[in-house]
Amino acid sequence: MANQNEILRLSAEVTYKEEIDALIAADKDPKPAGWQMSPRAVLTYICGGKAGNTTITPKYIGDKRLVEICIATLVTDRALLLIGDPGTAKSWLSEHLSAAINGNSSRVIQGTAGTTEEQIRYSWNYAMLLAKGPSYESIIKSPIYTAMEEGAIARVEEISRCASEVQDALISILSEKRIAIPELSDEVAAKKGFSIIATANTRDKGVNEMSSALKRRFNIVVLPAPASIEAEMEIVQARAAKLANDFELRAAMPEAKTVEKVVTIFRELRAGQTMDGKVKLAQTSGVLSTAEEISLIVNSMALAGSFGSGKVTDAELASALQGAIVKDDKKDAKVWEEYLENVMRKRGKEYSTLYSECRSLL
After folding, report:
1. Which residues pair with 360 in a beta bridge?
2. How far apart are CA 120 and CA 145, in angstroms?
3. Alpha-carbon span 259 to 211, nearest angstrom
């Protein structure tokens, strides 16, 4: 087994083990079946607070009421569907809810065009199947199958990217809380505590639209983009600092003013207008999400640490902005050029160097 220091990305339950242990130790409230901590403790883990002498860092910065609704849904037998634009922390929240509730966020199915019904239910070890015929030992259990047996939470990421027949396989599971195994004339029934957290991207509606029958099996929570620039900056700074530390980047975290420039540019292009509402802007083909802002800051730090002075300058920022915003050479390059000339150039000295660096890359 690899040393934890050698693993590129640790799971939430490993990264925040100290906080989870502190919350469990301090928890005095009743716990639902299959949960390792109470709903109130889960809320503290997600939104931040204190557990004895341990400070619990916020994992989700946003509307606390939305998190309460998510947790309350999982207390019942209803599944939870998190929807929103890319970068609104759907997967992040899903992982941390699973880590807090069960101490295991690894029961996950990544939805793609290649996801099959067997990955939702179960498949077979064909060598054992040929040698011994159908048996429980020959079954390869899906994460959902395992979660049902253990009374735990399974996660389905990007459910709308799965084909309709794969989505339909979830309907009977969510309705009957059972998986039939006709080859053995048997079925597996879910234990108390079993649930599913699914995520869906609102930009992928046209890929494989979820049926009304499937949607009815979920409580749906819409995760919005950060309401204020301050909230968005807080998210970007916290996540970028954590990633920079994990990757051991040899660069200092950019100043708040630098992060504010990035967030301002993204929010304006995303909204199609300047912050004061005076100038209308064309929008890019990309989403320009909070997740991309975080990646942009981290990439700038990697450039500065590997090839620069260790301090993020406008040169590194411009290179990262170019890569993040211009996804389609023809359309996005034009939108970006118009933004530079009509907005950034007119913002004076504070933006002048960044404008020059960005302009030189077009």
Report:
1. none
2. 8
3. 41
Question: Domain boundaries in the chain?
Answer: 4-222, 229-360
pLDDT, tens digit, 9 for 90 and up, residues 82-127: 999 888 999 999 999 999 999 999 999 999 989 999 999 999 999 9
Contacts for 304 with CB less than 8 Å, ≥ 6 apart: 251, 310, 311, 312, 313, 316
The CA distance from 294 to 304, in Å, is 15
Instruction: State the residue for tokens 């030992």.
Output: 137
* Cα(118)–Cα(104) distance, integer angstroms: 22
- What are the CA-CA distances from residue 133 to residues 10, 137, 140, 146 (Å)? 38, 10, 14, 22
- Our CA dihedral for 341, 346, 347, 350, rounded to 10 degrees, sits at 80
| DSSP states along 232-266 | HHHHHHHHHHHHHHHTT-SSPPPPHHHHHHHHHHH
Q: What is the pTM of this model?
A: 0.90
Map tokens 């046209």 to a residue. Answer: 206
Q: Which two tokens stand for residue 77?
A: 């037998």
For tokens 């995303």, the residue is 270
Q: If you search the block for the tokens 């007119």, which residue do you land on?
A: 346
Fold entry, domain 4-222? Rossmann fold (3.40.50)
